[in-house]
């Protein structure tokens, strides 16, 4: 059994590789990942990196998990610090837009990119991307439902959550493709008027 | 100079290859295209297919152009048959959703997929995808602006067009990833209430 120092070094290398893998995948896709290229870019031994992940598919699955943890720390966790109902719903939308706009991942939202990449390719990677996207969609829906239950909003929470998520993703898509910040402005205008229109009087 | 028959056969082969390429790219991405694989799948001579396109990048650019013509024939052309203003705006949204839902391309909207794939990868393919997406975004914005000018709607046409396009793309993304038709229902509900809310009285 390796000593604690060796385990700790392995964990640190794993984190380093996965952070770089998530950044690369946000630009070039999960299919564009290569253990050899990651090892070379990070100046790590190729055999050591291979030993940590075993296969490209394992690397892709571990990258999705690592990216989800980063996404949650930027979007979900800070929103949970805000009181439930309309304030939390506003916060999660604003945090999502900031996460995309600040390029937490250089290619924009990681899950937007790998969702489009693996949406129609059956397999374990597809299922992991679907589960990750589904967990955020559920969080958004529950946050909207809380706002309705608390009588902050008068709306169908499923439709409202779909609309809000749609605005964020369209802003991300247009901003990255066109190299422009205007889509974030449009999304914020739409968000404000959408939430204003369903606010309980 | 080749005779007319030879030119006609070349054009027909080119159309066949490009239709197949657009279908493949909607699932596996433009990076997943291969002249050799397309020739094999279509039982064409590899050298003949290579002679038609020359390079993978030329094939990718020609595929975008072919996909845009298919997209236009399903979404833009039928909308232009409808009177301008609110009727045309409704028609283009409905045609867009039908184009995605009927899987004109097997992986869902071609431009959604290749937009996410090439949004952060500079080069000629990125520029072609950006131009194609931009031309539809402009059409949608002008259609919304006509509806405002004709006093059918009272809204900011740029924000409204952004919202409507966002709903379609989110429905496409969720439906393909989750293998569900419910996102189209959610998008239609949102669309109806959005256009209802901005309708001039």
List its traits:
201 residues; homodimer; mainly alpha; Tetracycline Repressor, domain 2; elongated
Describe this structure in words.
Two copies of one chain form a homodimer. Chain A has 201 residues and is an all-alpha fold. Chain A contains ten helices and no strands. In chain A, α2 (35-41) crosses α3, α4 packs parallel to α8 and α6 (86-101) packs antiparallel against α8 (124-149). Chains A and B meet through α1, α7, α8, α9 and α10 of A and α1, α7, α8, α9 and α10 of B.
Beta-strand percentage range of chain A: under 5%
- List the helices and strands of chain A in order: HHHHHHHHHH
Largest interface, C-beta closer than 8 angstroms, per-chain residues: A-B, 47 and 47 residues
Q: What is the CATH top level name of chain A?
A: Mainly Alpha
- How many domains of chain A? The number is 1
Please compute the radius of gyration of chain A using only Cα atoms: 19 Å
């Amino acid at each position: 059994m390796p000593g604690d120092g060796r385990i700790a070094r392995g964990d640190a290398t794993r984190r380093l590789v996965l952070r770089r893998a998530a950044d690369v995948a946000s630009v070039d896709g999960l299919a564009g990942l290569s253990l050899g290229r990651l090892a070379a870019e990070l100046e790590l031994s190729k055999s050591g990196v291979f030993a940590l992940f075993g296969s490209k598919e394992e690397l892709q699955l571990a990258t999705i998990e690592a990216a989800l943890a980063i996404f949650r720390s930027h979007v979900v966790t800070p929103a949970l610090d805000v009181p439930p109902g309309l304030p939390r719903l506003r916060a999660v939308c604003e945090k999502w837009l900031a996460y995309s706009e600040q390029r937490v991942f250089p290619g924009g939202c990681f899950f937007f990119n790998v969702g489009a990449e693996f949406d129609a390719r059956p397999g374990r990677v597809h299922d992991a991307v679907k589960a990750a996207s589904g967990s955020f969609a559920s969080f958004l829906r529950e946050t909207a439902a809380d706002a309705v239950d608390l009588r902050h909003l008068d709306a169908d929470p499923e439709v409202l959550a779909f609309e809000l998520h749609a605005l964020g993703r369209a802003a991300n898509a247009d901003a990255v493709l066109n190299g422009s910040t205007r889509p974030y402005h449009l999304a914020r205008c739409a968000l404000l008027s959408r939430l204003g229109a369903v606010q309980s009087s």
